[in-house]
Specification:
CATH topology of the largest domain: D-Maltodextrin-Binding Protein, domain 2
CATH class of the largest domain: Alpha Beta
Helix content: 40-55%
Radius of gyration: 29 Å
CATH superfamily of the largest domain: Periplasmic binding protein-like II
CATH architecture of the largest domain: 3-Layer(aba) Sandwich
Number of domains: 3
Order of helices and strands: HHHEEHEHEEEHEEHEHEEEH
Number of strands: 12
Length: 288
């Protein structure tokens, strides 16, 4: 037996319900000849005669009834799924670090197609939105929560590397290995002082970084500065952020940074919030 498609089963089901090729075609928006060809193809795949055609209409052979039952189950299941997807509705406000907002947006593309009743507001920011006070429904964070009213999920551990533009690295770091003496003249680009205790910021200091001509709370601004050759910075490995940049080897092991998803306990039964959390979590885990 060849593979049977849902489309062919759907046509058989329409024929069973309507009793004629003409009426089935009208229901499906197909020509009578197309319906007939698809039934022929289904019979060929099954290796058996399924439909008996007469001048007054059609009737199904006994062997076709099992396929009709299967088609009914699939049709009902798809209707329930479609109903549930459209029943899940609401607005979700999501806060993410500025440099990771694009990744969260990518995680939500298929989610929004699946659940058209949900509206998402994604805020890229380098302050920590107070989820406990409902400034956001969901937040992606680089530090652990201390609030008992939040549900926190560890979703990934980022490993950082040192990067610079290809031209900058080739001109200033021969061989691509950062040595202690390089710290005397190599400029570094970093986050502003409120984030100085993050592992990758401390790591740059441990490498001997002295010159920080540019700091910013905006990660895209930091990346632009690095791509323009203003200095080097620490960036998560294997991420889209490293595009167009060159990895620099270091003698000190590169740091790691845990990443968490948090949301308010009061929202744990809100389907639209739980669905968004699941979509973001799955995307991040699959990207690792």
């Amino acid at each position: 037996m060849d593979t049977v498609s849902w489309e062919d089963l759907r046509i058989l089901l329409a024929l069973y319900r309507s009793g004629s090729l003409l009426k089935a075609g009208q229901v499906l928006g197909m020509s009578t000849s197309t319906v007939g060809r698809r039934i022929d193809a289904l019979e060929a795949a099954m290796g058996a005669k399924l439909v008996h055609r007469t001048a007054s209409g059609t009737h199904l052979e006994d062997g076709a009834l099992a396929l009709v039952e299967l088609a009914l189950e699939l049709d009902n299941g798809l209707r329930v799924l479609h109903r549930d997807q459209h029943a899940i509705a609401g607005k979700v406000r999501i806060s993410a670090p500025d440099g990771m907002a694009a990744m969260v947006g990518q995680a939500l593309h298929e989610f929004l197609r699946t659940f058209p009743g949900i509206e998402v507001e994604l805020v890229g920011e380098n302050r920590m939105a107070d989820v406990a006070k409902r400034e956001a429904d969901i937040a992606l964070r680089l530090v652990r929560s201390t609030s008992s009213v939040l549900i926190e999920k560890h979703v990934s551990t980022l490993r950082f590397g040192l990067y610079g533009s290809k031209d900058f690295v080739e001109r200033n770091i021969i061989g691509g290995l950062f040595l202690p003496q390089h710290a005397d003249y190599i400029p570094f680009i970093g986050l502003d002082s409120q984030w100085k205790d993050l592992p990758h910021e401390r790591w740059m200091t441990q490498l001997g970084a002295k010159l920080f001509p540019f700091r910013s709370s905006s990660y895209p601004a930091i990346l632009d500065a690095v791509r323009c050759g203003l200095g080097v910075t620490a960036i998560p490995e294997h991420s889209s952020l490293t595009g167009g940049l060159m990895r620099i080897s270091t003698s000190k092991p590169s740091p790691t940074q845990p990443m968490y998803l948090v949301y308010h306990r009061d929202l744990r039964r809100a389907k639209h919030v739980r669905s968004a959390v699941s979509a973001i979590e799955s995307f991040i885990r699959d990207s690792n």
